[in-house]
Amino acid sequence: MSKIKVMNENLSNKIAAGEVVERISNVVKELVENSIDAGSQNIKVELLDAGKRRIKVIDDGSGMDEEDALSCFKRHATSKIYKDDDLFFINTLGFRGEALPSIASVSEVVLETFDGSNGKMIHMKGGEILEEGIAPSRKGTIITVSNLFFNTPARLKYLKSEPAELANITQYIEKLALSYPKISFVLSNNGGLVVRTSGSGNLLKAIHEIYGKDVSSNMIPIKGSNDDYDIGGYISKPILQRSTRNYMNTIINGRVVRNIELNKIINDAYHTYKPESVYPIVVITVDTDPTLIDVNIHPTKQDIKFSKMQELKTLLTESIKKALYDTLLIPDAINMKEEDDETLDYSSIEEELPSALFVREEESVKTADNDTLDSDEYDKKSTQGTMDFAYEKKNSEIKSLELYPVGVAFGTYIVAENTEGIFLIDQHAAVERVNYEKVLKGLSLCDSISMLVPINVELSSSDMTILRSRLSILVNMGFELEEFGINTFKVNAHPVWIREGFEYETIKTVFDLVIEEGNDFELVKFNDKVAATVACKKSLKGNTRITLELAEEILKDLVNCDNPYNCPHGRPTIIKFTVYELEKMFKRAM
N- to C-terminal Cα distance for the chain? Predict the structure, then answer.
């Protein structure tokens, strides 16, 4: 007797449900996405006990006739694609034809739908039809799912707590509301309102409805396009940060996706505008030809692959950096929320690079408690002071402030004023930004120093093979080297920034980085890391007393920086107290 048999449809649907319906939020996702595909303008989701007892989705979409209402519960039955080529032109959220039969196989479902002419009601349990009838003449669909996982106790056992399940559902409805600002979404649980959006079509208003005024008032619009992609949406000012990536919303052709590479590109675009340990709030839409993406790589359809990721990376990076650069970035002290500060960890801003990577300079500026550093000493001791720091007419907003230093508080904060209010400048962060840009310019020149005595670096056979294929990276950094003997490179010249006396240690470190990161090694990021480390080590420290003349010199240098608003690690260099805010604090203004 043969052992291999074709499983029945109900069993196969239960197995599919294990992939498609992992938790309650997956059920809500599939049902709401069907409503969106049906052209709904108003979608209401009603939950009982966070969906454990009941999920009800009400929409005003196109509805279904009797035949489609019966067919939609058959596995792989779909109105979205019909032939192989359709997989390359997917313009809908659903297309696999697995969600409804999978949900119906592990729950009790009541479907009521009306297409404007005919209405159909279907009552199912465990994938079996219990009752059929005529639905009320109301345009759209109402689908109710109850007793979820009643026949799969193992999955029911591992559901999260009600607050956790509700949080996941809420988060996804919020993301859908941001993806479709023209659709009104309402989410309630046990009769209590959780989410409501107006469906106004205004994305910034949708952001306000989801995240509140503090977020919406600190968002920056972005827009860009190339031959393959059109992007738009909003990104947060650097002052607005979160400790998780949950607030990074990426929407591809109307589909909310979670793509690690995409999130990394967005986060990297904020480099030097914020600390590495926190993430921005973004709502970024990407529109592209469906043939350039593949959404059919996971049953939940929440991940995606791109055919031209490099083109998208370039567009996103340039658009985000331009938006940040063109925007007023001096934060008001009144908006510096404590909840944001709790997410920041400035104690670990030291880069994980060996001390040998520091360029040859005098040690950090240190003074006795009663000593005061003047502008002449600052000029002599400022890191990379001999470099040509070409000032350009940038940052017109900060230049127009005409700040006048009036004192230094705690030996750490320069106090400046103008007609708009009072400004506090972190002297260490400010000098660090100035030094960072000077050093970075020197690194970008890729100048080399020839060595009187070349250095031989011996490698393992595997490392030698890898490094041999990536020599162009080292050449672009300013190294001159040749193979010498077995598994050995002879280094004849190295970049000028390598500290004298530490050549071998530094060169070996660079070799290891290139071998480890391989094709992902980016010279720009490496230079950034070196420049940030050098700048931090060589900048004025806290509790260093300086004169007003030196404070004025620091402000002058800061204003002429490419980005005067943040130190290389993302900390703010300057904070503003407006006259109105001061008067309000002292009850002079109400």
Answer: 89
